[in-house]
Amino acid sequence: xxxxxxxxxxxxxxxxxxxxxxxxxxxxxxxxxxxxxxxxxxxxxxxxxxxxxxxxxxxxxxxxxxxxxxxxxxxxxxxxxxxxxxxxxxxxxxxxxxxxxxxxxxxxxxxxxxxxxxxxxxxxxxxxxxxx
Length: 132
Hints:
- The model has no long low-confidence stretch (mean pLDDT 89).
- It contains three helices and six strands, in the order βββαβαβαβ.
- Helix content is 30%, strand content 17%.
- Helix 1 packs parallel to helix 2 (58-70).
- It is of the alpha/beta class.
- The longest helix has 15 residues, at 92-106.
């Protein structure tokens, strides 16, 4: 797969790879699996890495991206990293802190796309505030 030819130009002039590598895994799957499969995905040509706070593996995904940059496989600008805003953080005052948490977990300066995970909000219960 040639990643440079497998992109679509967006109306702002940026490009998005047509194929993305999804990093969701059920909770019973060890987070170390992300450390095993994501490097392989980058090595075979995936350049769109799809993450989300809710997947609870952003730290591992960020570690992989940084290691593939460090070993010369890719440059940061070659990777199109997506993350997602969870349903409990849709209120305007919660969006920036949620994005900053994802950036911290990924240890990246920016994500290329930040979208709502689901376009409906859920009310945060008092006992669940630490997980949202």
